[in-house]
Amino acid sequence: MSNRRNGTLYIGVTSELSRRVWQHRESQIKGFTKRYGLKLLVYYEWFEDIRDAIQREKTMKHWPRAWKVRLVHAMNPTWDDLYETLNQ
């Protein structure tokens, strides 16, 4: 999640991405995303096993910002909001 191109980044894990992004967009989740207005889904990864997703989240949270930005640019160079493409 982000607030704009090259803006603040948030990494999280969920078993229902579409629902969780909607909650962030509607500011229903107190905390970091609400405080910084992070409403754009700019990057995501799918995992069959939630344990793998949790491990990936933990790993990525320790990465330097530049590595995270590189991932976003590779998947979504214009930092478009990918929320609308989730259920297509």
TrEMBL record:
This is GIY-YIG nuclease family protein. Belongs to the UPF0213 family. Pfam families: GIY-YIG (PF01541). Signal peptide: none annotated. Residues 1-70 form the GIY-YIG domain. InterPro entries: GIY-YIG_endonuc (IPR000305), GIY-YIG_endonuc_sf (IPR035901), UPF0213_domain (IPR050190). It comes from the Bacteria. Gene3D superfamilies: GIY-YIG endonuclease (3.40.1440.10). SUPFAM superfamilies: GIY-YIG endonuclease.
